[in-house]
Amino acid sequence: MKVHWDIFCTVVDNYGDIGVTWRLARQLVAEQSCVVRLWVDDLRAFERMCPELDITRDQQWQQGVEVRHWSSDWQPTPAADVVIAAFACQLPSAYMDAMAARERTPLWMNLDYLSAEDWVVGCHGLPSVKFKQVQKYFFFPGFQVGTGGLLRERELLASRTRFQASAHAQREFLWELGVQRVEGARLMSLFAYENAGLADWLDVMASDARPTQLLVPEGRILGDVARWLGVEGLTVGAIEQRGALTVQVLPFVSQDQYDRLLWSCDFNAVRGEDSFVRAQWAARPMLWHIYQQEDDAHLEKLEAFLALYCRSLSPAARVALEGLWRAWNTGAGVAAAWILALEHWPELQKHADDWCLEQASQPDLASALVQFYLNWI
Ligand code: TRH
């Protein structure tokens, strides 16, 4: 008998909420033989990464996942065997009643935000609140043993290795995106929130001895890029050169294509949660723009990740990498930090590879969720 899962996602802002739940839903179907319904309140955000989606339909199938529009007008629906509330979203009260009404109560979990902080290990898997006789549990993704791990598809690293070993596959992929490689240039991608440090960074790339080709998917950073270039606005396909720097605007692509973009680049600037993890699986040096929180709570999370990620770097490379990430996230001193990081490039590249392998030695998040369920029944 197949296990039925309901995953609930409210799109708070940006793409991380739907990005994580869509990836998880697909993986549970493809690799764990689960039957999955994904309930999403905002189909427009979803459509950006799944262009096949028909946003006028309340129910449809996409890649084996039953996608349901989670409207405010909730219709009575029987509860599944496993219920995931992503990022502490509030389930419809009628659905909670349906959970409690089941003969066998479902496993109810809150899939939390990703954090490298130490407390996550202690809280992962703990019981949370109860609704009638239905117990909710905390499920925390994470980087350390004892957490729920990271989303990683079974064939991901093998596909990435094949792709990165094939100049032809990379050329073809980039060509489909309208990108022609600039001879001798460092190829980089940039996905970030608005950032006060961007102009400094672009200045230093433009005056570098080695050319840089910067690919920028449509998104929030484009306004800052346009301002630096001195142009009115930027649309998909725009290519601008300033000194040694060539900037090209890319469309927002599907998640699978975005993976290949990360795999193609020598360096990736990413943000939020899901692109941050995908850049780690790309095994290339990277820069993380963390999602800003009140009272600078995000800076503590940044430090927690840096402490883990940098622990096996040489002291000099560690200073360089930490300096760059802090500069990017505070908007100050990015140019000097970038110049220093470039001096440690070979070590940072090797480290990205080692970190990816270390993380891949842990169970992936979808398998960990299934195992949690098996232990629970
Ligand atoms: O979009 P994000 O900033 O998302 C979030 C949300 O802001 C959320 O509220 C916050 O709590 C969380 O970050 C930490 O960044 P993220 O998580 O990287 O999500 C982006 C998704 O978009 C990811 O699944 C990758 C995908 N993507 C594509 O599919 N195609 C693209 O071209 C690009 C650039 C991204």
Structure, explained:
This protein is α/β, with parallel strands linked by helices and 377 residues long. It has 2 domains: 4-150 and 363-376; 156-360, Glycogen Phosphorylase B (Rossmann fold). 43% of the residues lie in helices and 19% in strands. It has helices at 16-32, 43-49, 93-101, 119-123, 156-165, 167-176, 198-206, 222-229, 255-264, 274-282, 297-309, 315-330, 334-343, 345-360, 365-376, and strands at residues 4-9, 35-40, 59-62, 65-69, 82-86, 107-111, 127-131, 134-139, 186-190, 212-217, 239-242, 245-250, 267-271, 286-289. The strands form 2 sheets. An 8-stranded mixed β-sheet has the order 3-4-2-1-5-6-8-7. Helix 1 (16-32) packs across helix 15 and helix 7 crosses helix 13. It is globular, with a radius of gyration of 21 Å. The two termini are 14 Å apart. The mean pLDDT is 97. 2'-deoxy-thymidine-beta-L-rhamnose (TRH) is lined by residues 12-17, 19, 49, 113, 191, 217, 252-255, 258, 271-276, 291.
List keywords for this structure.
six-stranded mixed β-sheet, 377 residues, binds 2'-deoxy-thymidine-beta-L-rhamnose, 14 strands, eight-stranded mixed β-sheet, alpha/beta, Rossmann fold, 15 helices, 19% strand
